[in-house]
Amino acid sequence: MVPAIENLDHNWSQIVYREGNQLATVGHHWKLSRALNKEEIVHRQREGTCLTCHQDILENSAAINLLHHVAEYTGQLPKTNQQHANLIHKILLTSAWGQVLGAVAISIAGLGGIFWWLRRRQPNQQN
């Protein structure tokens, strides 16, 4: 831990209030260096993002419970931030591909149904 600096009138771990008001001067070594504006702060703020996924874990979703137990017993529960990030990436890709393939399957089934219906409406042409 870094010891406090006497007579320092603000916290150096924060350069800007969440509202966007600047607390301290940012380094002047680079031409474009500056504090983040309010929009950038809100965009990068991550409070509550974990609840997006973890709310289902708290509500004991059967599917998530099963996957959690399998991961626990096979030693695949993430233990580091990188392992957690890899898991999130895998879940995102699986979900995206599942939605794309589901839409393709529904489209093919719909076209197949239309084709079947049109063929069924045609009168039998027997010689």
Radius of gyration: 28 Å
With helices defined by DSSP (H or I, 4 residues minimum), what is the helix count?
4
Total discrete domains: 3
What is the average per-residue confidence, as pLDDT, rounded to a whole number? 79
Fraction of residues in helix: 55-70%
Kindly report how far apart the N and C termini lie: 94 Å
Strand content: under 5%
Work out the number of β strands. Answer: 0
- Major sheet attributes: none
Class of secondary structure makeup: mainly alpha
Return the string of H and E elements: HHHH
Please tell me what the overall shape is: elongated
Unreliable stretches (pLDDT < 50, length at least 5) are none
Question: What does it look like?
Answer:
The protein has helices spanning 38-44, 49-58, 62-73, 81-121. The protein is mainly alpha-helical and 127 residues long. Helices cover 55% and strands 0% of the residues. The chain has four helices and no strands. The chain crosses the membrane at residues 96-118. Keywords: Membrane, Transmembrane, Transmembrane helix.
